[in-house]
Amino acid sequence: MTTITTRTVEYPADGLTMIGHLALPAGVDRRPAVLLGPEGTGLSDVERRRADALAELGYVAMAFDLHGGRYLGDPEEMLARCMPLLADPDRMRGIGHAALDVLRTEPRTDPDRIAAVGYGTGGAIALELGRDGVNLRAIATVNGLITGRPGEAARIRCPVWAGVGSEDPIMAPAQRDAFTAEMQAAGVDWRLVVYGGALHAFHHPPVDHTVRPGVGYHPRHAQRAWRDVVALLAECLPVTD
């Protein structure tokens, strides 16, 4: 296994002190980088391990924070914070830009080779960075098929990959259709993968707290979605030794 180094990073965003997780590959050279966003519950060891796995593949990876160092295991508390956030593109962009600035200023990061990968709320933030015209090489969103303000998807300058469970009641067929119509109308290079039988947050291992109805882990599709994300990065943001 490739030796990696990790550290926490603190930075201001959304009126909070965010605490992100930065993972660096072996070596001292500049590398392509991935900004990694969590589900609405917030940054957890799941995202930290994903950032570490990306570092093992040769990427500088930063898993960003949503709630000022807190993990919102209570569904009602999570919804109370995330629903207003998801309805406010400028707030989402602010959170995304703050994390992206930290990633860009890391000396190991090649600032011209960055992708954004996000899950749920983190995926919505990744898309909003694209709609804001940020120079990204790829965007991947799982369970975060959120449409933006009219016309702004035309600012997306990279391929967009999206994944969703076929039985996800939160990202229902009408939501998927609206998202794909937005991407198509904007001329985006987009792909949507629907994972048969999977619920919302199908990629996330089981948790020890109450979850919303329609949420559930699907181990086989979780592995497939991760492989699909890695394949997108290999295509759009290859690591060269």
From TrEMBL:
Residues 20-235 form the Dienelactone hydrolase domain. Keywords: Hydrolase. It comes from the Bacteria. It holds the Pfam family DLH. GO terms for molecular function: hydrolase activity. Belongs to the AB hydrolase superfamily. This is Dienelactone hydrolase family protein. It comes from Streptomyces yunnanensis. The lineage of its organism: Bacteria, Bacillati, Actinomycetota, Actinomycetes, Kitasatosporales.
